[in-house]
Hints:
The complex is a heterotrimer of chains A (361), B (526) and C (75).
Chain A: H1 3-28, H2 41-48, E1 54-58, H3 60-63, H4 68-75, E2 79-83, H5 89-100, E3 107-111, H6 123-130, H7 137-146, H8 149-153, H9 155-163, H10 166-169, H11 178-182, H12 220-235, E4 239-244, H13 254-267, E5 270-273, H14 278-281, H15 298-315, H16 325-352
Parallel strand pairs in A: 1-2, 1-3, 3-4, 4-5
Chain B: H1 6-19, H2 27-40, H3 44-77, H4 84-130, H5 145-160, H6 170-178, H7 191-198, H8 206-239, H9 247-277, H10 295-301, H11 304-319, H12 322-335, H13 337-360, H14 364-394, H15 400-418, H16 420-423, H17 426-438, H18 457-476, H19 482-485, H20 492-509
Helix pairs in contact in B: 1-2, 2-6, 3-4, 3-5, 3-6, 4-5, 8-9, 8-18, 8-20, 9-15, 9-17, 11-13, 12-13, 13-14
Chain C: H1 2-11, H2 31-45, H3 56-59, H4 62-74
Helix pairs in contact in C: 1-2
Amino acid sequence: MKALKIIIRIAAALLVFALGIWLLQRLLVPKYVTENEEGLLVKEYYSYAGGNDVLFIGDCEVYSNFSPVRLWQDFGITSAIRGSPQQLIWHSYYMLEDTLRYETPKVVVFNVLSMKYGEPQSEAYNRLALDGMKWSDVKYRAIKASMTEEEADSEALTVASYVMPILRFHSRWNELTGADFKYMFGTRQLSHNGYVMRIDVKPVDTIPKAAPLPDYSFADVCWDYLEKIRTLCDRNGIQLILIKAPTLRPHWYDEWDEQIVKYAEEKGLCYVNILNEVETIGIDYTTDTFDAGMHLNLSGAEKLTKWFGTYLKANTALPNHRGEAEYEEKWIDRIDYYNEMAEAQAKQLSENGKLDGYWGD
Amino acid sequence: MSFVSLGFLAFLAVLILLYYLVPKKGQWILLLAGSVFFYAFAGWSALIFIAVTALSTYLAGIYIGKLAADRDKYIKEHSAELDKEAKKAYKAKVKKRTYLIMSLCLLLNLGMLAVIKYTDFGISIVNGIFRTNIGFVHFALPMGISFYIFQSMGYIIDVYRGKYAPEKNIARFALFVSFFPQLLQGPISRFDELSKTLYGPHKFDWNKFARGAWRVLWGYFKKVVIADRMITAVLALSGEPEKYTGVYVVALVLFYAIELYADFTGGIDITIGVAEMLGIEVAENFDRPFFSLNITEYWRRWHITMGTWFKDYIFYPLSVSPKMLKISKWSREKLGQAIGKRVPVYLSTIIVWFATGLWHGAAWNFIVWGLLNCLVIIVSQELSPLYTRFHKRFGFSNTKGYNVFQMFRTFWLMGFIRVLDVYRDVPGTFRQVWSVFTTANWGNLFSGSFLKLGLTLSDFIAVLAGCAVMFTVSVLQNKGQVRDNIILKRPVAVRLVVFVLIALLITIFGAYGIGYDAGAFIYGQF
Amino acid sequence: MDKLLEILKEIHADVDYDTCETLIDDGILDSFDIISIITEISSEFDVQIPANEIVPENFNSAAALWKLIEKLEDE
């Protein structure tokens, strides 16, 4: 038989296989539309990449608490958040590296809560942080740096499963829902430049006393990554600002705070523990949080953002882009979507008494 | 490198591509290089052991071959002057020397196997008897060592017996010992059979390639969809024996039968299929054993190459050895014809099954497993005249229904003996099996407690569907190979599409990755 | 030859040893039978059939077995 015929046959089979894998993969990967919606965040960044002067990196304490739309409307500051659920510090570092492939912000804001985690916490959070990242050597290094023990045991499969997520999610065949078919080829937009909006209220009832810890020192690996973030910013002429967002849980120990204060002083960085500014900002924990103190709701986030805008004005040389046509054009749609979602949520809340998802439908 | 790994698939793709691109004369050298690479993946130290086996067996073979050739030459040259007796005496003298060389080779290799595999077991026995407290040595068992040593020992015995001439090229011999598809779990090939096709040259043959690819696909289906899913329940049930008695033991017998069958035959399908894609014929190791009517037949159809190895190299030589014939004579005189006749056969059978048990693993459960098999074989041998009379009288022995009953009986009997390898505890296994008769917890079949073993309902459905496919294929195989009768008769386009569809199904329904334990091939550890 | 047939008949009375040429291939004789036959032969004929001669070709028919015995007696 002619070699060409054989090659055509095998190539045809491989092509059909690849097509099949692609279709099944679209079907089987989680859509993050009816649950774990934050899984959409990392990927959404690429739709608003470019022209952001401020970049927030960190966990839910950034994506639930800061509103880039408010920063734009009130201060003309352009910003984006690259947050993901329980984003660990190495995730944040690679998130920054990945962002630098698209734009170089003037200011990077890092929320220091993740300093408390020296080890991968859960495979699922790796997927939420990394699955959405576009492919590059950065992603590869991020995967290698983030693997849990279980993932490291079959490293080749783990890396391959980020190239072909079907290798990770194939067993979802028995969990498929209508949404998997509906959103097979397109998904919904969740965030507003990385901000995840919630308007409902669940007040803080009691603030439990935090138990003392046997050891307050952060893991070496966390310090290493913090230093890596700082030097990367340094090399790119970026001003790094460390913050601790004003949410009550998990508890932020004074002993931890002191270490960060010391580090910031040594390196000449701005560090602000916003927990100390709560009264100035006017956050009211009976109305400004949707889950009893873990995250701020829209009202809380807007208060905080307003205050933080002022802080940025005072401590950085960020330009005000209001009035510049190319920026105004970009942000007008974002403002619309922001208001639209707030209204939809308000409507659903008043009709049903509770929110079901983020889109109010 | 496990068959179920992306690394193996990539290795295979590259190897096959190169195999048909390099000059045909170099194909077997590429296979040797590939085999060394494959083996080196398990660690360089493991390479030393296989090298020792290959080299020692090669040299012993060459030496025996030279002695035999010299002998033939001498007899030919001196045939005029030597009478029959003198020739016989000369032959016997040479035979003594070849026997010595073979024995040294066996001693070295089996000794190596014994030290690595059985030292800890020996220590545990010594500790038990003398109440000492000698520490264990914990040698790591090199991959596939039981298989390649047995294969090499078969070779040296055959060369000694003059069945074939020894291989003169050491590289070619090294490939016979290390041929990568059969390193992990056999089959235990014979040199005269494997060497026919092992060294090529092989032109690309689309039909052979396609047949091989289909078989590999089938192997992956059995292994990944069925065995690797089922293993979760097997481990759960055997992990907490106190909790899982009665009906759960019955379930474990069934689950383990399915798991082991799908895993082992699936692995062998991959082995034989890969070889076929390379144009190489490897001996079959299974012949639908669960359709066997009795346990003797079962052992002719399950792990065939191991069975015939023990038969050809231990059972026969032992039972026809002069010593055994003497024992036979003696026992006939002392114990009477009826018993005396049985002594040599049964004695050999017991020794062989003891060795078979020990080969499977260095633990009492394997030895008891072997002896139980032996017991059933001997009892059924003794009962067989009774059966024959019974069947003659009632005349239903050849009905389909009775055959199904016999298969059912053999399946469960073998299954209950086999659970010794999952409990790994002899008295514990007997307790568990006894609990089937004393614990009335059959209600749990419907109480949902089976869904707490790590498998969801959909997993059970997937296994059930997989078993249905496996069963259907086995029945179809009554009329020959499914590939020849059904698949290869369709147009190429249809075949390709169906092949791809099955590959996609395996990708989805396979039990692999996070949340599943990518089960190592069970037989690799023996 | 008659002595051999007698031995064989004792193992399986219902087989026609004059015509059957697939004693092994069809699984008529199992390994137990083979050993019994060899043991009997060794006491009746004073030849020892070595293990390497236990191959299907030598045991598939009574005639083949007889040839083997003659060959071994000759050696």
